[in-house]
Structure to design on (126 residues):
């Protein structure tokens, strides 16, 4: 299962993955992320929560690589991943390191990730 939400006021994309991610999920995720990217302004942030994702099929990796590349090419700000310890997450981390042109920070929860973004907003000059 997956969810993709964007908060235009915060200029933030939220991606949540849970359970087993199959090819149908990965295709839907890719399309929803691509659609959301068209709505967000340059410098948008991403909070991705994979802490409850159990595994994904290897056949999904090219689709995840497309998502990573699309995020990279849309002038992303900070990318914060809510972490767990699944094998699937290790696969995504490896793909991210290979294809992403952005650094990935880690947080223990959505609240911690959002606090990191608030901290960034308050430290940036106006």
């Amino acid at each position: 299962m997956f969810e993709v939400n964007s908060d235009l006021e915060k200029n933030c994309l939220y991606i949540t993955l849970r359970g087993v991610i199959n090819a149908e999920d990965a295709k839907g995720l890719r399309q929803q992320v691509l659609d959301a990217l068209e709505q967000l302004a340059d410098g948008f942030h991403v909070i991705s929560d994979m802490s409850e994702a159990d595994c994904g099929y290897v056949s999904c990796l090219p689709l995840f690589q497309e998502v990573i590349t699309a995020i990279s090419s849309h002038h992303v700000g900070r990318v914060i991943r809510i972490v767990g310890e699944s094998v699937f997450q290790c696969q995504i981390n490896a793909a991210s390191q290979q294809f992403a042109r952005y650094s990935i920070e880690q947080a223990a929860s959505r609240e911690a990730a959002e606090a990191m973004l608030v901290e960034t907003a308050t430290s940036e000059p106006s």
